[in-house]
């Protein structure tokens, strides 16, 4: 039988990278909102790490006292560099842009064949609604928020990663928290309440029950549909309970035939995945008002390029070759 173990000359460097891959993917994804871009960042991080490791004797990893800190620093800096390219792509994107949804549930833990990408987001889930809010931050504010609020890095550690002073990082963190909390309350509805509301909402929307939808939706509800010019979607956000309800019932009437629906967890939240011919057709995620428990935001992703990470046959992309 062939020996598939890593070659001895690269084993130390490879193992160090693989030991931290889940964390690195989660950091990159939360900074970028895109699986494909996060995977590209990991590839670049691996190349930088492998090049550094190559400086060691016999190809072993160099004497870096904290490989995790080194790898996270490279990942964050690569993600910040990629933000500029993402911004240019957004200028020509058709319609509203939403983060790429990720499946974060499974009946028995990670699905068969699931790679570290999906496992990482299950461990450090950032909701689709929060990712939308994070898009309003500057790249540095987002990096500081993700490292501190999601992964628990101290400001001194974040300062070392970003090459900024601790005082500057504290200012960035304060601005980021203020902007995030202005858009998204700190206390959210209980997960059980969210799941029940999601099930009621989906039943009403897909069943074309306009009266039930109007009861569930908050007066200021907004519907965001991301089709990227490839999937069915509204060209701009739909605002107001009546317009949202009518748009959703119209969408259901045009799309319902031959579709299958599953209640799943997306980015740690209750959601519904719509399948057509066995492949993902759309993902719908609802965000509730924590006071009234009515639906205030609806995120509907129909761009096929953003649905591979919710397909059990293709979870999370492929890891960098090592």
From TrEMBL:
InterPro entries: ECF_Sigma-70_Domain (IPR052704), NTF2-like_dom_sf (IPR032710), RNA_pol_sigma-70_dom (IPR014284), RNA_pol_sigma70_r2 (IPR007627), RNA_pol_sigma70_r4_t2 (IPR013249), RNA_pol_sigma_r2 (IPR013325), RNA_pol_sigma_r3/r4-like (IPR013324), SnoaL-like (IPR037401). Residues 128-179 form the RNA polymerase sigma factor 70 region 4 type domain. Residues 199-275 form the SnoaL-like domain. The keyword Transcription regulation applies. The keyword Transcription applies. Gene3D superfamilies: 1.10.1740.10, 3.10.450.50, Winged helix-like DNA-binding domain superfamily/Winged helix DNA-binding domain. Residues 18-87 form the RNA polymerase sigma-70 region domain. Coiled coil: none annotated. Keywords: Sigma factor, Transcription, Transcription regulation. Belongs to the sigma-70 factor family. ECF subfamily. Interacts transiently with the RNA polymerase catalytic core formed by RpoA, RpoB, RpoC and RpoZ (2 alpha, 1 beta, 1 beta' and 1 omega subunit) to form the RNA polymerase holoenzyme that can initiate transcription. This is RNA polymerase sigma factor SigJ. It comes from Streptomyces camelliae. The lineage of its organism: Bacteria, Bacillati, Actinomycetota, Actinomycetes, Kitasatosporales.
